[in-house]
Amino acid sequence: MKIRVAITDDHPTVRSGLETMLQTQPEIEITASYASGNALLSGLQQEQPDLLLLDIHLPDIPGNELVKIIGEKYPAIHIIILTGANSAFLIKSLYSSGVKGYLLKTSGQEQLLAAINQVVNGEIYLSADIKDILSKSALKQKPGITYTNEELTDREKEILQLISEEYTSQQISERMHLSPRTIENYRLGLMQKLEVKNIAGLIRKAIFMGIIK
Is 188:182 a contact under the CB 8 Å cutoff? Predict the structure, then answer.
């Protein structure tokens, strides 16, 4: 039986490259390819793959939110993150949300195929570079470490305030003349700095620390 794989990435060249790579594998069938989170969720209502290759930086719905939605609605779908983001905090957060594999976009065909096969067989996939990132993070981490207001940049504080006022990434990007992807990177960086797992936790901790009101 073939492994049914769906791809979600907002870059056409990435989707095309993955399709070309996987179409050469007789044990894999590509069921669909999506350019956004909303397109993915709409497509999953019609057909669910065995495995989803998902980029976390999408133009409409952040990947970490998609992981939670898919986990609740379609728990049988195995998710492998395929992205350029190499934050140890993000990697650990996504694994705790149910992701089964995490690959950087610099990974080759051999790594991708190994990840797909391991994950559909019920295993967790950690490539050598991801293990290295997590190991270095563990060595740097100090018990009881906390961040203060002064350790955030002015731009981080401004974005944090707008997040607390329920501005979307698109609205913040327009207001600050930055790309939505840059704003998402700031969101992830803030969660990493303040050691929280989601936006609600980020706002609670920021209020507690007096960064926002």
Answer: no
